[in-house]
Amino acid sequence: MTKYFIDTNIIVGYILEYDDLHKDAIKVFDKYDLENQDCYISNHVLDEIITIIGQYEGSKLAYQTYLMIKDNFTILNEYHIPNFNSQVMNTYKTENKNDKQKIGFTDTSIIELIKYYKIDTLITFDKQLSEKCPIDVINK
Question: Is residue 88 part of a domain?
Answer without folding.
Answer: yes
